Recover the amino acids of this structure.
């Protein structure tokens, strides 16, 4: 089976690494890919937003399955376009992608389908937002840019001043462009967070092992929000919480797809807060989480390729995944200045000085001749598998200690 992955980051590197292990794989391709992914797959000079170019390449190379990594191509309808051309695609329709591309759409979908979530209000103008914030007496609150913002369009506001500043940044300064044309204000949910991902063909769902992402830049959950500084998998949840997630989140999500005729063959990611009142969904993503994927895939023992193909075929029912007996801890190394203004072009050393059971996934790197350099905010993720979290952490941080670049920053408490 010839497979094309869409994307170029750490998540796509992890997907390429996992799919490369499949005995069913013919040739692996990736658009646009990266220097690191090019060690596993053919990476042609085609843009991922060039839908005709992507299809032309698939037709020329005999691609049997397209696996879409990032959310942006899905929101622009790549899955619909390729499916209409007769290709099998792992990735939801454009309407399905709205569950991530619009916070308002997602919240209203949850509301209609009785999926537990935080109470919310949508603001269409900065003036109306300021008026409602002035009348609010309960803090903290959460302010979210409606559209895609690379995981950074969420502010937890501790008081009125911070809420007003978020509205100004999102709606007036447009720090995230058109994504801030509307904002959603939600009640703040307290508790522990869990990343719940499920593969689905739109009718059946197969839960992946639950993971936990560490969003804040600094140890102890301090500092600014980021795209994710590391993850641990699996995370054991109480059976009563898992029962709610299965029945009130995943099953009601599938029922909502059917009722609203939303095409969805791919992965649904529910960011869940385990509150005193039970699990509640913070947000939906319509693709594999990043960096959760770098922690989840290493603990999956089964061949992933036939399961992804079954999703694209609408034949997921009855499929199962075998897991390794162990835990994976994945630690992100970020560039100096991340997340506001990451520094690029710094030489990286020590990438190949690592131990068995440790994998380095490249997120923001480039290769010049035989040397590696930083090329993004989150530069790489070091993922290690151990019998328990302590062993996995020890292996991950030992491997990370050998890797160096100027200004490298990473959390010391991933998986604790």
């Amino acid at each position: 089976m010839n497979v094309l992955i869409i994307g170029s980051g750490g998540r796509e590197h992890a997907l390429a690494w996992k799919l490369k292990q499949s005995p069913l794989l013919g040739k692996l391709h990736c658009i646009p890919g990266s220097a690191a992914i090019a060690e596993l797959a053919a990476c042609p000079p085609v843009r991922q937003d060039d839908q005709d170019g992507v299809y032309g390449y698939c037709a020329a190379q005999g691609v049997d399955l397209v696996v879409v990594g990032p959310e942006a191509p899905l929101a622009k309808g790549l899955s619909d376009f390729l499916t209409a051309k007769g290709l099998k695609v792992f990735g939801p329709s454009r309407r399905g992608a709205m569950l991530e591309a619009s916070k308002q759409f997602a919240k209203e979908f949850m509301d209609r389908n009785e999926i537990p979530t935080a109470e919310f209000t949508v603001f269409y103008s900065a003036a109306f937002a300021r008026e409602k914030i002035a009348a609010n007496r309960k803090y903290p609150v959460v302010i979210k840019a409606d559209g895609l913002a690379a995981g950074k369009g969420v502010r937890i506001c501790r008081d009125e001043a911070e809420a007003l500043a978020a509205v100004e940044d999102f709606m007036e300064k447009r720090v995230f462009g058109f994504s801030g044309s509307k904002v959603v204000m939600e009640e703040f949910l307290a508790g522990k967070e869990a990343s719940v991902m499920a593969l689905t063909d739109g009718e059946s769902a197969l839960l992946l092992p639950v993971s936990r992402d560490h969003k804040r830049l600094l140890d102890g959950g301090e500092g600014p929000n980021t795209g994710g500084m590391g993850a641990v998998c699996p995370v054991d949840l109480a059976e009563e919480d898992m029962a709610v997630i299965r029945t009130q989140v995943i099953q009601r999500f599938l029922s909502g797809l059917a009722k609203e005729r939303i095409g969805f063959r791919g992965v649904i990611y529910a960011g869940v807060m385990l509150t005193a009142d039970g699990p509640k969904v913070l947000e939906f993503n319509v693709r594999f989480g990043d960096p959760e994927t770098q922690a989840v895939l290493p603990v999956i023992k089964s061949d992933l390729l036939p399961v992804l193909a079954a999703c694209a075929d609408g034949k997921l029912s009855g499929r199962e995944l075998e897991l390794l007996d162990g835990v994976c801890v994945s630690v992100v190394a970020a560039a100096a200045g991340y997340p506001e203004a990451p520094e690029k072009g710094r030489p990286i050393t020590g990438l190949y000085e690592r131990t068995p059971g440790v994998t380095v996934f490249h997120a923001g790197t480039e290769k010049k001749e035989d040397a590696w350099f930083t090329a993004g905010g989150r530069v790489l993720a070091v993922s290690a598998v151990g019998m328990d979290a302590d062993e996995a952490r020890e292996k991950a941080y030992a491997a990370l200690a050998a890797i160096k670049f100027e200004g490298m920053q990473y959390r010391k408490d991933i998986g604790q």
